[in-house]
Specification:
The protein folds into three domains: 98 residues, Transcription Regulator spoIIAA (2-Layer Sandwich), CATH 3.30.750.24; 74 residues, Phosphorylase Kinase, domain 1; 201 residues, Alpha-Beta Complex (Aminoglycoside 3'-phosphotransferase, Chain: A, domain 2). The protein contains 13 helices and 16 strands. Helix 7 crosses helix 12 and helix 9 packs antiparallel against helix 11.
């Protein structure tokens, strides 16, 4: 048996491969005992047998989790192991999630691709968003949970259905939207860029009018702090400490933030916006969302705007300037001043967070943070 461990913010993910029996169970026992996380996820996709010794370890984990106020779940459980949970009654005591249904993309219509994955039409009414290889199922589960919770509190978003698997990839099934991609509307009508920017500002402010439920949505500042610490050894300790100090200086808030809010994550249907890609929705200050918009649109020399949205980079810069004026027009004056002092820092945070779940792109993302944004961040933080 092999146990691979991964940490995502305050979540410990244990991926078990092989049989969990008396002669192997000690490996699992040692994998979690000393961790100080708020959530434990045990992925059993590669496990086809659990003995009574393994079940005892699961019960021990459950007791430790309860005593330490830690959330514990067992996911991707194969039918043979699900049967063991069911016949022993443990499926009634533990949070056990069966492996989702399989789908095939063979012969399906390809719709679009992004940094994290691809979208295909399943049928006339549904699409599947499949994450790239290497992105864990917990990411899809999180997106599904966040999309549902956001829809329930009134955020205009697509209806989400089940989590699915396609080979080694995971995904989420959504309703097929008969809608236009907002970024394509901007690219095809550059003369109206200021009106489009005002629309994005309205969408953002409406999103930020909602308070995030702490039982559902994570604390974004806490997650970002963990991601920044993970850069030690790749950035200097001085730069990591500087980023941490800047993060803690951003005001705390319980506002709902999307943390990937841009024109390619907005669809327009019958004149009304629908916000998609809900996997990073969190609680935090609205400035974190404005930082994502800066990362995409504020720096034409990076090519981010055209790569992510298809909007020409210089047009994206003009769009960004119009957006800032519209968004901050009725916000407290000191809020824009805080943003102006932290633009490059806030822009870096989306790239830093993406390194955690896009290992294949880590080197490219790190280069943009280290070589392009860090000099600007240091200058922002320099004394006058």
């Amino acid at each position: 048996m092999n146990v691979a461990t991964r940490i995502d913010g305050q979540c410990l993910i244990l991926s078990v491969t092989g049989r969990i029996a008396g002669d192997t169970v000690a490996t699992l026992d040692q994998a979690w005992l000393t961790t100080e996380m708020r959530q434990w996820i045990v992925n059993l996709a590669g496990c086809d047998y659990v003995s009574s010794a393994g079940l005892r370890i699961f019960l021990k984990m459950a007791r430790e989790a309860k005593a330490n106020n830690v959330s514990l779940s067992f996911i991707d459980v194969l039918p043979s192991v699900q049967h063991i949970f069911d016949v022993t009654g443990l499926s009634q005591l533990l949070n056990v999630q069966a492996r989702p249904r399989e789908v095939s993309i063979e012969g399906l219509e390809f719709l679009s691709a992004g940094v994290c994955g691809q979208c295909f039409r399943l049928d006339q009414e549904t699409i599947v968003k499949l994450y790239n290889d290497g992105v864990g199922r917990e990411v899809a589960e999180q997106e599904k949970a966040f999309a549902k919770a956001a829809f329930v509190v009134g955020i205009p978003t697509a209806l989400s259905y089940d989590v699915v698997v396609c080979g080694e990839r995971t995904g989420v099934v959504y309703e097929m939207l008969d809608a236009k991609l907002f970024s394509r509307m901007i690219a095809s009508d550059p003369k109206n860029v200021s009106s489009f920017a005002a629309e994005l500002a309205k969408i953002a402010k409406n999103f930020h009018a909602t308070t995030g439920n702490p039982e559902v949505f994570p604390d974004l500042k806490l997650k970002l702090s963990s991601h920044i610490n993970a850069l030690r050894g790749e950035l200097s300790d001085a730069d990591v400490d500087h980023l941490q100090g800047r993060l803690q200086a951003i005001p705390d808030a319980e506002t709902l933030v999307h943390f990937d809010l841009h024109a390619s994550n907005i669809m327009i249907r019958d004149g009304e916006p629908l916000i998609i890609d809900m996997g990073d929705v969190s609680r935090g200050h609205p400035l974190f969302d404005i930082g994502v918009i800066a990362m995409i649109y504020a720096y034409p020399e990076t090519g981010n705007c055209e790569f992510v949205t298809g909007v020409p980079n210089q047009l994206g810069r003009h769009f960004y300037e119009c957006f800032l004026d519209a968004y901050f027009s009725d916000r407290p004056p000191d809020e824009r001043a805080i943003f102006n002092r932290n633009e490059a820092f806030l822009a870096s945070l989306r790239l830093i967070a993406a390194m955690a779940f896009l290992p294949a792109a880590r080197a490219m993302l790190l280069e943009k943070v280290r070589d392009f944004l860090m000099p600007r961040i240091r200058q922002e933080g320099a004394p006058n």
